[in-house]
Amino acid sequence: MQGGVVEAQEKGKARAAPARPAARDLLLQAASEVMSERQTIDVPLSDIAARAEVNVALVSYYFGGKDGLLLALAKRDAATALGELDRLLSLNISPEEKLRRHLAGVIKTFFRYPYLYRLLAALMRDASDETARDIAQFFAQPLARAAQGLMEAGIANGSIRPLDPQLFYIAALGACEQIFANRAILKFVHGIEEIDETLQRRYAEVVLETLMRGYLAPQGD
Amino acid sequence: MQGGVVEAQEKGKARAAPARPAARDLLLQAASEVMSERQTIDVPLSDIAARAEVNVALVSYYFGGKDGLLLALAKRDAATALGELDRLLSLNISPEEKLRRHLAGVIKTFFRYPYLYRLLAALMRDASDETARDIAQFFAQPLARAAQGLMEAGIANGSIRPLDPQLFYIAALGACEQIFANRAILKFVHGIEEIDETLQRRYAEVVLETLMRGYLAPQGD
C-alpha cells in the first residue's frame, strides 16, 4: 500500500493524472457514495468523477468504461464480504451458528451497500454471459460453497435437518435479499419508504428465526 | 363471453381487424408462449403479432404499445393466481395449512409462467411510479393482505409463531422466488440449465420445509 506517497503526489499535481491506485480507489469510493445517496445505480459518470475530483476520462483508463467501473465496485464490496466470511469460517463455533451468522452477514452487506443488490442484478441481467459467469464465480460460488460445507457438517453432527444444501441456500439467500430487491413493493404495499438500521435488524431477526425454526409453533407443549 | 361469435367472425374475415376480445386475447397468449419458449422477455412485437396471426398495429390499438401489452399479460397471469388464492382462502382448513399451500402456489405460478418473475421485476424497475404502484396494488397487495390474515389467525390460535407477518411474508416470497430470479447463478454456480417439473417440486419441498420448520434439527430427542 503506497497510499501516502500517492496522496502526496496528488496534492502537488493536477488531478487529471494522479498516480494509479489512488484515482482508481477514489472513483470506486465516489461511485459507492453517489449511488448510496441517490438510491439508484443510474448515476452519470461525470457526477462520479466530480465527486472523486478526478478527470472523467480516467474511468475509461482504469475500467474501460462505466460497466467496468460498476463491475469493479461489485468486486470491491464482494471482497469485503468474502473476507468477513473467511474470518467467520475460522471461528471455533458450531456449523449451525456459523450459518446463522453468515446469513445475518448477507443481510448486513446489502444494508451497508444499498446499491449492491441492484448492481449485481443489473450486471447479471444486462452484461455478457462472460460477466455473468465472472460474478457468479467470484461472489456467488464461494458463498454457496461455504454454505454447503456448513450444511453438510451440521447434517453430519445432527444439528441441521437433512435438507438439500444447494436448494436450501438458494431459498435462504432469497429470503435475505428480498427486502432489498423491490423498493416499489416495499413502498406501495407495506408503506416503507426507507430501510433504516432498525428495520434491517428486525428483518434479520424475522428471517433468521424463520430459516432456523420456521413459522410453525412447536407442537404439544 | 362472446367467444363463439368472435371466432366465427374471425374465420370469415381478414385477420387485420378481428373483433375486439379475440385479437386482444390472442396477442396476450402469443406473448406468453413466445416469452416462455425463448426464456426471455425481450421478444420483438412483430414475432408476437406473427404468432397471434394478427396485425402488429393492433398492439398499439389494444395496449397502447409494448409496455401496455406486457402489463396486461402480467395482470392476466396475476388474475389467475389471485383466483386460486380466493378458492384456497375459502377452504375449511387451518390457517397454517392455507399459508403452506399459498406459498407452494406462488412457486407453481412462477414455474407455470417462466417469464412472469422477470416481467414483474422489469415493469417495477423500468416503468413509471404509476405502473409500479399499479402492479403493487393489483398483485402484491392482495397477496400480502391474505398472508397477513393467515399469519394473524395462526398466531391467535397458537399454530403459528408470533413473527412479524409483514416481514415474514417478504422473506417467504423471497425464498419462493429466488430460484426463478437469477438464471446466471443457477447455471454458473449450481450447474442447473433449466428448471423442470422435478426441480420445481424439490425446490418447493425444501422451501416449505424450511419456512415451516427451519433448518435446525429438533433438540433433545
Give the N-terminus to C-terminus distance of chain A in angstroms: 60 Å
Strand content of chain A: under 5%
- What level of helicity do the residues of chain A show? over 70%
**Major sheet attributes of chain A:** none
Number of distinct helices of chain A: 11
CATH topology of the largest domain in chain A: Tetracycline Repressor, domain 2
* Class per helix and strand makeup of chain A: mainly alpha
Multimerization state: homodimer
Average pLDDT of chain A works out at: 88
The greatest interface between two protein chains, and residues involved on each side, is:
A-B, 56 and 56 residues
**3D shape of chain A:** globular
Q: Just give the CATH class of the largest domain in chain A.
A: Mainly Alpha
| Strand and helix order of chain A | HHHHHHHHHHH
DNA-binding region (chains A, B): 44-63
Protein name (chains A, B): Transcriptional regulator, TetR family
Domain HTH tetR-type (chains A, B): 21-81
Organism (chains A, B): Parvibaculum lavamentivorans (strain DS-1 / DSM 13023 / NCIMB 13966)
